[in-house]
Write a structure and sequence with these properties.
The protein is α/β, with parallel strands linked by helices. It has 2 domains: 6-215 and 418-441, Aldehyde Dehydrogenase, Chain A, domain 1 (3-Layer(aba) Sandwich); 219-400, Aldehyde Dehydrogenase, Chain A, domain 2, CATH 3.40.309. It is built from 15 helices and 18 strands. The chain has helices at 6-25, 28-44, 46-57, 61-80, 120-131, 145-157, 172-181, 194-204, 229-241, 261-273, 292-307, 341-344, 360-368, 383-392, 425-430, and strands at residues 88-91, 97-105, 108-112, 135-139, 165-167, 185-191, 210-214, 219-223, 251-257, 311-314, 331-336, 351-357, 372-373, 375-379, 397-400, 415-416, 419-420, 433-441. The strands form 4 sheets. It has a 7-stranded mixed sheet, with helices on both faces. Strand 6, helix 8 and strand 7 form a beta-alpha-beta unit. The termini are far apart.
Length: 442
């Protein structure tokens, strides 16, 4: 893949700006027609995309197939919103005057994508951006640019006007920074780490560029004494080891009530022990971590956790038997505390620390003490508790007696350091529109 130059970044900015005005003037349903053709193109190239996701990102074939399906849904959902872009008509206080609030696009938008879902994150951003009249410059993560380039080929084959979707490849320092700092870009949407979001927010401040930041988080998996332990343990393992733990809403820490801690941990270890490693192209099971840097981070966090007193109950090392690659064993740490490194930091890998807590209030205090708040899991049969948690648990998404999931009609957003704005559903579409008020005398 080419490492784009500053001149190519400038070309992308100029091309996107020139294309945007004409694109905005098209009826939304006409813009939606292009999105439908993109979705059809992805479906036609399904096998190619699945193969790329396995080879480039490392997820098993079944998970790659799910990502392709989700991408088609993101784009199709956005296209279907074309006839549902609404404004407001309000009565004026003045005679012979009408008050309108229109919703209009920002203009040129920038989509910065993480490596864990190289295709779905593009669909999640491009669909809403385009149907609302924006153009978008894509900057895929430098670890996974090939899938993005094939997506752009599908865009070209769908016949979109030149400049409506552009892509630049390279590192954040070389191409991401000039894009973020450009006054041409009026909205930046990022899926990435908290640290990346903070850097982008600082860089975007000069031009007061609008931001939609879907950042990381360390989701607590709270299990109370009245929970269905069998279902909770199965859901917890699945939510931790999906995509080798490289999902921002994965269960990152178990907070289990003391009364059932032994029984739940035994069931969790049973489910985690069934997670197998295998060639993601053929064997299924859990694939490798995507990058060497991410693997080294996982090793560092586990080592620090053990040094701090946690015990390795399962896994805890590289899977040397798998040969070359970023392989790490499914890992469970017991005896963890809120101060354990694996509890404090977002692991973004297949490691799950278990913390015993006195009761619901103790679990809530640990969860809310975190500076981030992207998602959380709560397993209890007590409606008084889970209704209380809806009010008091400081996080963007709560899974109540539910495993990891995400639907296009929902809303994916974080609280506190986990971000601004959000993706998906009607609220996600709204995020790509700004308001314009008109006082019309007659």
């Amino acid at each position: 893949m080419p490492a784009c130059t500053r001149a190519e970044v400038d070309r992308a900015l100029d091309s996107s700006a020139r294309a945007q005005k004409a694109w905005q003037m098209l009826p939304p349903v006409e813009r939606a027609g292009y999105l439908h053709r993109i979705a059809e193109g992805i479906a036609a190239a399904r096998d190619e995309f699945e193969d790329l996701l396995v080879r480039e990102q490392g997820k098993p074939r079944a998970e790659a197939a799910g990502e392709v399906t989700d991408t088609i849904r993101y784009i199709t959902y956005a296209a279907e919103a074309a006839r549902r872009i609404t404004g407001d008509i309000l009565p004026s206080d003045n005679p012979r005057e009408q008050l309108f609030i229109y919703k209009v696009p920002y203009g040129v938008t920038l989509g910065l994508c993480a490596y864990n879902y190289p295709l779905a994150l593009i669909g999640r951003k491009v669909g809403p951006a385009l149907v609302t009249g924006n153009t978008m410059i894509l900057k895929p993560h430098e670890a996974t640019p090939v899938t993005a380039s094939v997506f752009c080929r599908v865009v070209q084959e769908a016949g979109l006007p030149p400049g409506v979707v552009n892509m630049v490849t390279g590192t954040g320092a070389e191409v991401g920074a000039p894009l973020v700092e450009s006054p041409v870009v009026r909205l930046i949407t990022l899926t990435g780490s908290i640290r990346a979001g903070q850097a982008i927010a600082r860089a975007a401040a000069q031009n007061i560029t609008a931001l939609s930041l879907e950042l990381g988080g360390s989701a607590p998996f709270i299990v109370l004494k009245d929970a269905d332990l069998d279902r909770a343990a199965a859901a917890c393992a699945q939510a931790r080891f999906a995509n080798a733990g490289q999902v921002c809403i994965c269960s990152e820490t178990v907070l289990v009530e003391e009364a059932v801690a032994d029984a739940f941990t035994e069931k969790l270890l049973d489910h985690a022990g069934r997670v197998t490693l295998g060639d993601p192209a053929t064997d299924g099971g859990m694939g490798p971590i995507t990058t060497a840097d991410a693997l080294e981070r996982v090793e560092r966090i586990v080592a620090a956790s053990v040094e701090g007193g946690a015990k390795v109950a399962l896994g805890g090392r590289r899977a040397e038997s798998m040969g070359p690659g970023n392989w790490y064993e499914p890992t469970v740490l017991t005896g963890a505390t809120p101060d354990t490194a694996a509890v404090r930091e977002e692991i973004f890998g297949p490691v799950l620390p278990v913390v015993r807590v006195k009761d619901y209030e103790a679990a809530l205090a640990i969860a809310n003490a975190r500076p981030d708040g992207l998602s959380a899991y709560l397993w209890t049969q007590d409606p008084g508790i889970y209704m209380d948690a809806i009010q008091r648990l400081e996080t963007g998404t709560i899974f109540l007696n539910s495993g990891i999931t995400g639907l296009v009609q929902g809303y994916h957003n974080g609280h506190k350091l986990s971000g601004l704005g959000g993706e998906d559903g009607t609220h996600g579409i709204e995020g790509y529109l700004q308001k314009r008020t008109v006082y019309q005398a007659y």
